[in-house]
């Protein structure tokens, strides 16, 4: 058995996103990073291992460039690395991605799985719950902390009325929100070890997952609509108007 | 905002994955730990102890040294570390330079097996801090005439004299001190509690304010016989150390220059005068273009020199040229950046005035700008012009 | 087309987004059945115009939230060609689980929906918009306030079905919501005060607004330098924190270039300042020329109404 961590490489959240010929121009992305919530998941997985848990396996599904993220994960202490090579993730629908990840977790023999609650590119949040269903596992979402508890685990999760500490046993998936513990910094020794760590690179068909036609077809990417020019209002009574615009025009409250 | 380094000629593509990972590790650390705290450290005139701990934990001290718990990285990686640290502050890079190139290196190259095993592992983790005593109050560019003396007293050495401008001196656990024994320059390891040794801090600096600068004073300082570095005699010892430190400075200066360039560019794009961003004015663009040009050249110099360090084909004069040039342009870029920032440039809201003041020190220490010119002059003509004697 | 809407609720009843889900379903000509997990809000749901049927889905499994268990309990009733849920934390979880059970695709956080299943959604945190075609059956979650509410005035039949599902987790402890104030670097909404607040004690008014909308409170350097009570950790700007929230509300801040450097990449900026010529209005999406004394009470009451 092992602890699985599902990682996704995304454009750094501070990177500019450009659109060219109807598609987000990935070649113009200045920096690729591990998705931020995945970082919290990874840190928690490493802590679970240090608390007497099993080895940690990092799994990603993505193009060649994603291998760098796995090496970064190895530099902070991940034991083994599994890369399911898929050139264009956006060509797959959620059921396809989840089938691949569930099969990869099965291959790596993981019964406890950590992932981010959503990736910073699609901001969807389907992977944790979806993969859990395929594996017959419980999924605890919006988790900020996990600790071993007898044979099972205690997880701190956000709920509608406040935080809750919930108990769960394997097989289970923890979909991470921002945790208290940031991902540890690597060190030179870790980087040297990571360089020597082999990445097992496989294809979806190696996992017995056949990719039929995706049921979702991306038609186009477009830049966000231009914001209207700044509007200025006189007097405190205009606050109501502005609050209305924030809700309906800007959709930020 | 994730830092995007100026890299006009894509030197990034020439690095190994390991070098990039080390660089990114230090880059992130500088962004998270140094830049948000540097102004406070400067105001208080301290080098925060957390930085020492972090540098040790990252495992980058004594970067290019191999064995004895040292990292064993390439010289390119060492250069990248210096570049990122000095993008934060020259004082942080100075700390690492002194620890690695000036204190660890001489023990690693000229020390006995016992000395290496005793000191290097703790120095690599930052638990032991070292400093380097060569310069004296009256002997800076001319260290060969140093006054500090060591006498062989049979069962110990007796040191007398004083060193000045010593980075890390007051906080150091040990000092590698160069002194004349029977008229020959030798290296000695002095520990902080050795009788007759003191290291008062120098205050009142307008430069490198987050770095500890000290005097080292030896008054009948007794040290055991096994503290002499057996492997070297003469100025070759300290000069070997300085070569490595100067090499690191040639990269570090690029980092300081990048920081000043970034700040100038950002400011010029957001500062509106006469109804337009000042970045749209030709005189500002001319300055930014000059900065880009000089930084790019400096990066190529440093990178190529790094390759020569790694394959062992370098000569000291090449290091002199890189140190001299890169610090020179970094200082000029800092001044130009201050100019673009207008009055705002003198505020500690922006890093430029701090870099500028730091670089005035960097221009002078580890061989002044002019001394490096003379080293190159001698290389070109075969005629030394340091002294009036033949 | 048959549409199944999963009602979005808290213990207190339906969330307003439920009426938006129905509105979106109606806009593409759907015949809507609303499923109310745990039976919460079924009478409210029946009063939404355009709802054909409400099923109050009851069962022990709804006592503790587990997306997978709830989806299993709802699954046999979620027979629509299109299943709609809210893009709330729970809604996304249920939607993803239902899709996985039914082996159909799920698209989350949709802000535009057209018949023929053309959906648009923001990606990369809103830095781009994706338009895609989805084949039915599928599950789609909708972002709150992106669609118009269906009006009230319906009177759909309410049926009750009892379902069961295995719940794999147990709540051991419920913790009160952390009262600790958010850090400005973490918050999605920030309200900042400047020296125009007049006195540090007046920051309490900013705190009150922040509490209503879950915002962090920030400050300009002028405020931090002038008043010891305002800590440097609150400072937004060149030497403070650089922030990029969805909404930044600047109160009594003139907008020095150093402050703008720390917040100008916020998605939306609201400025409240009594000086109509303050530079902060140059970067504001919505500027309000008023004193904070006049504006903040209105802001508080308007936000409390949401």
Sequence-ordered SSE layout with sheet pairings:
The complex is a heterotrimer of chains A (253), B (390) and C (306).
Chain A: E1 2-7, E2 9-11, E3 19-20, E4 23-24, E5 32-34, H1 36-50, E6 56-62, H2 67-75, E7 80-85, H3 94-107, E8 110-116, H4 127-135, E9 138-149, E10 152-158, E11 163-168, E12 172-176, H5 188-196, E13 199-202, E14 216-222, E15 231-234, H6 239-248
Parallel strand pairs in A: 1-6, 1-8, 6-7, 7-13, 8-12, 9-12
Antiparallel strand pairs in A: 2-5, 3-4, 9-10, 10-11
Chain B: H1 17-34, H2 38-44, H3 49-58, E1 66-67, E2 70-71, H4 75-88, H5 90-110, H6 113-124, E3 130-133, E4 149-152, E5 156-167, E6 174-181, E7 184-191, E8 197-198, E9 213-224, H7 236-270, E10 272-273, E11 276-277, H8 282-311, H9 316-340, H10 352-364, H11 369-381
Parallel strand pairs in B: 3-6, 4-6
Antiparallel strand pairs in B: 1-2, 4-5, 5-9, 6-7, 8-9, 10-11
Helix pairs in contact in B: 1-4, 4-5, 4-7, 5-6, 5-7, 7-8, 7-9, 7-10, 8-9, 9-10, 9-11
Chain C: E1 2-6, E2 9-10, E3 13-14, H1 17-27, E4 31-37, H2 42-46, E5 51-58, H3 67-75, E6 82-86, H4 89-102, E7 106-110, E8 112-114, E9 118-123, E10 128-134, E11 138-142, E12 157-162, E13 169-175, E14 189-193, H5 203-213, E15 216-219, H6 221-226, E16 247-251, H7 257-263, E17 268-273, E18 286-289, H8 292-305
Parallel strand pairs in C: 1-4, 1-6, 4-5, 5-12, 6-11, 7-11, 14-15, 14-16, 16-17, 17-18
Antiparallel strand pairs in C: 2-3, 8-9, 9-10
Helix pairs in contact in C: 3-4, 5-8
């Amino acid at each position: 058995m092992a602890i699985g961590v599902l990682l996704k490489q995304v454009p750094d959240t501070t990177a500019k996103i450009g659109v060219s010929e109807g598609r987000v121009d990935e070649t113009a992305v200045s920096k690729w990073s591990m998705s931020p919530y995945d970082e919290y998941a990874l840190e928690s997985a490493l802590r679970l291992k240090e608390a007497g848990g099993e080895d940690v396996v990092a799994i990603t599904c993505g193009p060649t460039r994603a291998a760098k993220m796995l090496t970064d994960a190895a530099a902070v202490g991940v034991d083994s690395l599994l890369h399911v090579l898929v050139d264009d993730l956006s060509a797959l629908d959620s059921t396809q991605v989840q089938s691949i990840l569930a099969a990869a977790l099965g291959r790596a023999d993981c019964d406890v799985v950590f992932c981010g609650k959503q990736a910073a590119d699609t901001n969807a949040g389907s992977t944790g719950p979806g993969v859990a269903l395929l594996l017959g596992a419980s999924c605890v979402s919006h988790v900020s902390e996990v600790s071993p508890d007898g044979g099972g685990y205690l997880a701190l999760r956000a709920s509608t009325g406040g935080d809750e500490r919930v108990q769960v046993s394997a097989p289970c998936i923890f979909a991470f929100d921002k945790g208290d513990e940031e991902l540890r910094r690597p060190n030179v020794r870790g980087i040297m070890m990571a360089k020597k760590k082999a990445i097992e690179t496989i294809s979806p068909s190696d996992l017995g997952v056949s990719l039929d036609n995706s049921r979702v077809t991306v038609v186009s990417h477009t830049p966000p609509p231009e914001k209207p020019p700044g509007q200025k209002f006189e007097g405190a009574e205009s606050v109501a108007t502005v609050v209305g615009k924030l809700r309906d025009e800007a959709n930020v409250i | 905002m994730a830092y995007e380094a100026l890299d006009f000629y894509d030197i990034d593509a020439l690095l190994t994955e390991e070098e990039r990972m080390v660089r990114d590790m230090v880059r992130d650390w500088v962004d998270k730990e140094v830049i948000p705290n540097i102004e406070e450290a400067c105001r208080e005139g301290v080098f925060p102890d957390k930085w020492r701990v972090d540098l040790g934990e990252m495992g980058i001290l004594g970067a290019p040294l191999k064995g004895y718990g040292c990292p064993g990285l390439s010289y390119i990686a060492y250069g990248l570390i210096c570049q990122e640290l000095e993008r934060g502050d020259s004082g942080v890079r100075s700390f690492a330079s002194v620890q690695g190139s000036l204190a660890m290196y001489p023990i690693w190259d000229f020390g006995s097996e016992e000395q290496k095993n005793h000191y290097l592992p703790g120095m690599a983790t930052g638990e032991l801090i070292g400093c380097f005593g060569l310069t004296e109050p009256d002997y800076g560019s001319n260290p060969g005439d140093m006054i500090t003396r060591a006498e062989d007293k049979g069962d110990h050495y007796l040191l007398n004299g004083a060193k000045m401008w010593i980075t890390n001196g007051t906080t150091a656990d040990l000092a590698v001190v160069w002194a004349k024994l029977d008229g020959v320059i030798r290296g000695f390891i002095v520990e902080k509690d050795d009788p007759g040794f003191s290291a008062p801090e120098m205050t009142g600096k307008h430069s490198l304010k987050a770095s500890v600068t000290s005097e080292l004073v030896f008054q009948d300082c007794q040290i055991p016989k096994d503290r002499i570095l057996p492997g070297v005699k003469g100025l070759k010892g300290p000069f070997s150390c300085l070569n490595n430190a100067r090499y690191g400075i040639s990269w570090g200066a690029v980092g300081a220059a990048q920081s000043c360039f970034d700040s100038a560019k950002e400011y010029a794009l957001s500062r509106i005068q006469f109804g337009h961003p000042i970045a749209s004015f030709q005189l500002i663009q001319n300055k930014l273009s000059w900065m880009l040009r000089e930084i790019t050249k400096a990066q190529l110099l440093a990178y190529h020199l790094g390759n020569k360090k790694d394959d062992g084909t370098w000569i000291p004069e090449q290091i002199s040229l890189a140190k001299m040039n890169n610090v020179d342009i970094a200082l000029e870029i800092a001044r130009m950046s201050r100019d673009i920032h207008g009055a705002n440039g003198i505020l500690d809201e922006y890093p430029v005035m701090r870099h500028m003041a730091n670089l005035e020190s960097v221009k002078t220490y580890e061989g002044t700008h002019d001394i490096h010119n003379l080293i190159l002059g001698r290389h070109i003509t075969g005629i030394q012009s340091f002294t009036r004697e033949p | 087309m048959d549409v199944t809407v999963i009602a979005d609720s808290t213990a207190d009843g339906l969330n307003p987004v439920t009426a938006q889900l129905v509105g979106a379903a109606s806009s593409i000509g759907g015949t809507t059945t609303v499923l109310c997990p745990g039976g919460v809000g079924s009478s409210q749901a029946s009063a939404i115009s355009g709802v054909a049927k409400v099923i109050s889905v009851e069962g022990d499994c709804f006592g503790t939230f587990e997306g997978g268990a709830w989806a299993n309990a709802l699954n046999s009733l979620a027979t629509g060609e299109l299943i709609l849920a809210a893009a709330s934390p729970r809604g996304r979880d249920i939607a993803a689980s239902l899709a996985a059970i039914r082996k159909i695709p799920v698209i989350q956080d949709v802000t535009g929906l057209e018949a023929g299943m053309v959906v648009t959604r923001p990606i990369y945190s809103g830095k781009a918009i994706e338009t895609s075609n989805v084949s039915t059956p599928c599950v789609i979650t909708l972002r709150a306030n992106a669609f118009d509410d269906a009006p009230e005035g319906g009177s759909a039949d309410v049926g009750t079905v009892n379902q069961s599902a295995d719940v794999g987790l147990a709540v051991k402890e419920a913790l009160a919501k952390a009262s600790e104030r958010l850090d400005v670097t973490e918050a999605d909404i920030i309200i900042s005060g400047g020296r125009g607040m007049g006195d540090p004690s007046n920051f309490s008014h900013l705190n009150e607004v922040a509490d209503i909308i879950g915002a962090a409170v920030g400050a300009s350097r002028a405020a931090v330098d002038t008043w010891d009570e305002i800590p440097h950790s609150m400072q937004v700007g060149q030497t403070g924190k650089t922030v990029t929230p969805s909404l930044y509300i600047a109160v009594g801040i003139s907008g020095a270039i150093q402050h703008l450097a720390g917040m100008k990449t916020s998605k939306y900026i609201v400025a409240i300042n009594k000086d109509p010529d303050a530079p902060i209005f140059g970067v504001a999406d919505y500027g309000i020329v008023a004193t904070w004394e006049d504006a903040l009470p209105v802001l508080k009451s308007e936000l409390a109404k949401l």
